Amino acid sequence: MSTAELPKRHYLNADYNIWSWLLTTDHKRIGILYMISLTLFFFVGGAAAILFRVELLTPEADLVVSPTYNRLFTLHGVVMVFFFLVPSIPAVLGNFLIPMMIGARDLAFPRLNLLSWYLFMAGGLLAIWAIVRGGVDTGWTFYTPYSTTESNSQVMAMAVGVFVAGFSSILTGLNIIVTTHTMRTQGMTWFRLPLFVWAHYATSIIMVLGTPVLAISLVLIALERGLGIGVFDPKLGGDPLLFQHLFWFYSHPAVYIMILPSMAVVSEIIPCFSRKPIFGYKMIALSSVAIAVLGFLVWGHHMFVSGQSVFAGLIFSFLSMLVAIPSAVKVFNWTATLYKGSISLETPMLYALGFIGLFTLGGLTGLFLATLAVDVHVHDTYFIVAHFHYIMVGGAVMGYLGGIHFWWPKMTGRMYPEWWGRISAVIVFVGFNLTFFPQFVLGYLGMPRRYHIYPEEFQVLNVMSSAGASILGLGYLLPLCYLIWSLKYGKVAGPNPWKATGLEWTTPSPPSTFNFDEPPVVTEPAYNYPPLDDSSLPHETSDPTASTPS
Amino acid sequence: MDTSFRLFPDAASDMADQVDRLYFFLLAVSSFFTLLIFVLIVFFVLKYRRGAKVNRYLTPGKSVLALELTWSLIPLGLTMIMFGWGANLFLKLHDSPPDPIEINVLARRWFWRMQHSNGKREDQALHIPVGQPVKLRMISEDVIHSFYVPAFRVKQDVLPGRYTTLGFEPNKVGTFHLFCAEYCGDNHSGMKGQIIVMEPAEYAEWLQGGPSEAPEVAGKKLFEEYRCASCHTSPVNPRCPPLEGLYGRTVKLTDGRTVIADDDYLRRSIVDPAAEVVAGFQPIMPTFKGQLGEESIFALTAYLKTLEAPTPGAGQAGEAAIGDTPPSDTDSKEADSKEAGPEPAPSRDDEPRLPAAPSLDPPRDPSPPEPPSKENPAS
Amino acid sequence: MSDHVAHHFDSAEQQFDAARLGMWLFLATEIMFFGGMFAGYTVYRFLYPAAFVEGSSHLHLVLGTVNTAVLLLSSLTLALAVRSAQVNQPQGTVRLLLATLLFGVVFLGIKAYEYSEKFAAHHVPGKYFVLGETHNPDVVPGHVELFYSFYFAMTGCHALHMIIGIVMVSIVAVKAWQGSYSAEYYTPLEMTGLYWHFVDIVWVFLFPLLYLIG
């Protein structure tokens, strides 16, 4: 590969003073702002997890007392869900890439985009303030009446923080939908859109329609706690289950807010590193939308033992089974894409393949939870904890890291160190499984979640899990180090180091402020990889004789 | 209790065995698909690695649709089996078996209090006989808790403000964990207890040991103490609906609805009497919310259940008002039941019984009071 | 191409389409926001019909009706304001926007008076709630309190939206006075109109659900 040069003028060096960043309306710079703030929150949430995993090494309380333990897991849940996972890929990669992928100069509402970052930061600061002032001990689920009447912690500040951050999410979703509808360049028809855009479109539907319901639930909690306007108060005849319905109406679809964008990333990486068009483009595109729609109808499967009616349980179980199908279709399609490809295992591909494996396990264990009688046993145990970490960490975070590595050269103009990338991808995969697989066993054994002190027969599995967590923590610290290192010392990447399709790769790396000098014109479907193109990749010397003529 | 390391939980109820069978089915399906995907990925990655000399020619025009349908419909069929199987077991779990042993369960941060049919109470532990169906009637006095017995594979949230029930039938003698599975604050993980399954004979013996007062006797005392009888003395007082034979019947309300007079209805009628007024009566009853704790309400409803319907002709006023289900039994056992309660049982631990104080209820203290009985089962 | 078109749009039409779609989507989020409260209201009204009728009977029906009329008028004047911009009558736009503002403020004034009445009558949920005399003794005060919880949560959120609407109308009124809008470009005006009509429609649902039951 010839020694590429960084472009002279690009979005990063277009302007240097601090206000050019804090008041920027450039979607790429806002993406970077998000990336920095999310990284911060990720390590705050991760530190809490490490602390309570250390505490759980023994069955007794020896590192922290119970109220502190409860604050730690709440901190971990709230920060990871609302301040990392929900915004992660849409706000960083979606922001950065969607306009470029559809050939636009920016998102439809650049100023709203900046506003959404400020709302996110305001919500985040409120959350941190709540933590500094003593933390919150309700769990990230804020169940009433505990959160409204009994908890002596900073529930108000945290609820307001999450409320404000919710509007950031709404604005991001709104921006993505409008941009996809109105800003596509000439020739970019709906079925030529990269699947990344399709999945983000589906995600945005959930953000726009689900988040307001979370917002109103939190408003009602705040009104009840602060002003005594008690909508859920059982002492007045209020129904605490109503809160659970409202909460899960958002928070179940929110799981798809976290996983769909990861599927988006994987759908880009797999064809690129297999040098092959993706298998079943339309099925993958439409299954994203199907997941988004069906996801709104299954919230009651969080409430099989809550005291909701048996009939409701049957309906929600049935619908939850249906939502498994589009996910299964995606997994099969990705696997089929590998068939007769020309596969190379760079870091993004390792993360993508890891994603498929872990998501498969996470998705299948979801079926255990949708199955009524089995859920009665494993509900609110470590089985659930393991299941949703397989989806949200095994799925969403693997996708996020894969995406960051894949587009890192586009965002910064420089390559990350490939060897370190592969090593840490493997460490993350191993550490993750060691942390969370034992938790499935713990769950079926009956260890309830959110338990600070536990019976001693659960200790061996807990020690395994904690050991895994330390490996996983290392796996997350490594990329932080070498990615920062690469900003200065990484090899210059050139416009398209992966020889990938997609409009974003037609621009220089890093791109200029307005992405394209001339609006591009699209004439071919997405992932139109030349069938047997085996040309070299930066880290791989390939054998040109390997290809057989078509 | 066996506290050694293990990978699979005890199974000590009929439900446990059935849930395990379904679990193994799910495990088999999941393992198959996980392995399938893993093996395919590894195989493709190895075979089609960049540079490998393999045939990469794709036959054009092959039916993609057939493949897509296969891998949509087969999973769909499998999930439908899971749904049907799971739903069937779930319905079984919610079935009420004939003649269960009924036990009241009161949850409060952070302890469980159980009250047996003869009034014997215990905290953080539940003694039950093997091989007999048990039905728990549960209520919380503060936040949501969840009654979870892993060895029975059953769990049910315990709510403030209304009863939830949980049924199971232990089939193994032994001691098993009881957990609170719904996060309830500081000492959530300390809200644990033991389920002690005993041979029926031992259980009967255990039940008789220690102080106890039948709940219907306690309820009768409360009934008198709160002067309920000054009004509810059918047929003397036409302003109040008669309570005899009320339990289990259909009641017509002033707003035209009908309700079944079950435990929940009786409870609501005590704490929120004006919410569901019996047709033909005025809402003149004061609320006892805040005066009667949940345990007192358990006792009162137990007493109300013993009030059999009076002989025909005696309760005309009530007959018209209380809807159309004929009284189940016309024997006048009322008089008997009033005398029949297990006589002057040694009075409970107890505080003075003033109408203003929730006398039968444990003090509002986070540390669980001393359980009334602590003897260990012989098992 | 007009100078109102931002750099990242190709044409005025594209910009207008984006703005309109964005506004509709935003209104969809608002529907979901209020929808959460409407769902809760429905559940409790089904559980405690008598208490809701009782609570409703203590609301000031005349003031509620007047407020409905005021809001409908404000929607009319705002729609006419957009119309005058479309036919290039900037002065008419400004006058009609001022009328809209006036109606909006009157609505909030009446609402504030109603709130103060409720406050004086101890009908605000919380520690000091007293039901007092009832029309129908067949109700539990706690359930009526639930009704008032919904009353204050729903009308409170609505009033907050009205305040935001008044700020928006004030801004476009100033802009209109400066002559920013014409038949070529009136997007902000139209967006403000959509938002105002939405807030109006929410009230059209709130009014019967809160004032007219029983």
UniProtKB/TrEMBL annotation, chain A:
Membrane topology of this protein: Multi-pass membrane protein
Any single Gene Ontology cellular-component annotation: plasma membrane
GO MF assignments: cytochrome-c oxidase activity; heme binding; metal ion binding; oxidoreductase activity
Pathway this chain belongs to: Energy metabolism; oxidative phosphorylation
Top-level enzyme category: translocase
Catalytic activity: 4 Fe(II)-[cytochrome c] + O2 + 8 H(+)(in) = 4 Fe(III)-[cytochrome c] + 2 H2O + 4 H(+)(out)
Transmembrane regions listed in the UniProt entry: 32-52, 72-93, 114-136, 156-178, 198-223, 243-266, 278-299, 311-329, 350-370, 382-407, 419-441, 461-485
One annotated GO biological process: electron transport coupled proton transport
Keywords attached to this entry: Cell membrane, Copper, Electron transport, Heme, Iron, Membrane, Metal-binding, Oxidoreductase, Respiratory chain, Translocase, Transmembrane, Transmembrane helix, Transport
Region (Disordered): 509-550
Protein name: Cytochrome c oxidase subunit 1
UniProt source species: Lignipirellula cremea
Automatic annotation (TrEMBL), chain B:
Enzyme class: translocase
UniProt-listed Pfam families: COX2 (PF00116), Cytochrom_C (PF00034)
Top-rank taxon: Bacteria
Gene Ontology, cellular component aspect: membrane
Keywords, ordered alphabetically: Copper, Electron transport, Heme, Iron, Membrane, Metal-binding, Oxidoreductase, Respiratory chain, Translocase, Transmembrane, Transmembrane helix, Transport
Predominant subcellular localization, coarse grouping: membrane
PROSITE patterns: COX2 (PS00078), COX2_CUA (PS50857), CYTC (PS51007)
Region listing for Disordered, in residue ranges: 311-379
MF annotations from Gene Ontology: copper ion binding; cytochrome-c oxidase activity; heme binding; oxidoreductase activity
Keyword Plastid (UniProt): no
Domain Cytochrome oxidase subunit II copper A binding: 98-209
Cytochrome c domain sequence ranges: 214-308
Membrane-topology descriptor: Multi-pass membrane protein
Subcellular localization, as worded in the UniProt entry: Membrane
GO BP annotation list: ATP synthesis coupled electron transport
Basic and acidic residues bias locations: 330-353
EC number: 7.1.1.9
Family note: Belongs to the cytochrome c oxidase subunit 2 family.
Summary of the function given for this chain in its UniProt record: Subunits I and II form the functional core of the enzyme complex. Electrons originating in cytochrome c are transferred via heme a and Cu(A) to the binuclear center formed by heme a3 and Cu(B).
Listed name of the protein: cytochrome-c oxidase
Organism from which the protein derives: Lignipirellula cremea
Native organism taxonomy: Bacteria, Pseudomonadati, Planctomycetota, Planctomycetia, Pirellulales
TrEMBL record, chain C:
Top-tier EC class: oxidoreductase
InterPro entries noted in UniProt: Cyt_c/ubiquinol_Oxase_su3, Cyt_c_oxidase-like_su3, Cyt_c_oxidase_su3-like_sf, Cyt_c_oxidase_su3_a-hlx
GO MF term set: cytochrome-c oxidase activity; oxidoreductase activity
GO CC terms of this entry: plasma membrane
One annotated GO biological process: aerobic electron transport chain
Membrane topology of the entry: Multi-pass membrane protein
EC number, UniProt record: 1.9.3.1
Protein keywords: Membrane, Oxidoreductase, Transmembrane, Transmembrane helix
Subcellular location field: Cell membrane; Membrane
Ranges for domain Heme-copper oxidase subunit III family profile: 20-214
A Pfam family reported for this protein in Swiss-Prot or TrEMBL: COX3
SUPFAM superfamilies listed in its UniProt record: Cytochrome c oxidase subunit III-like
Record field: transmembrane: 21-41, 61-82, 94-113, 150-174, 194-213
PANTHER family, per database record: CYTOCHROME C OXIDASE SUBUNIT III, NITRIC OXIDE REDUCTASE SUBUNIT E
Family, per entry: Belongs to the cytochrome c oxidase subunit 3 family.
Protein known as: Cytochrome c oxidase subunit 3
Organism: Lignipirellula cremea
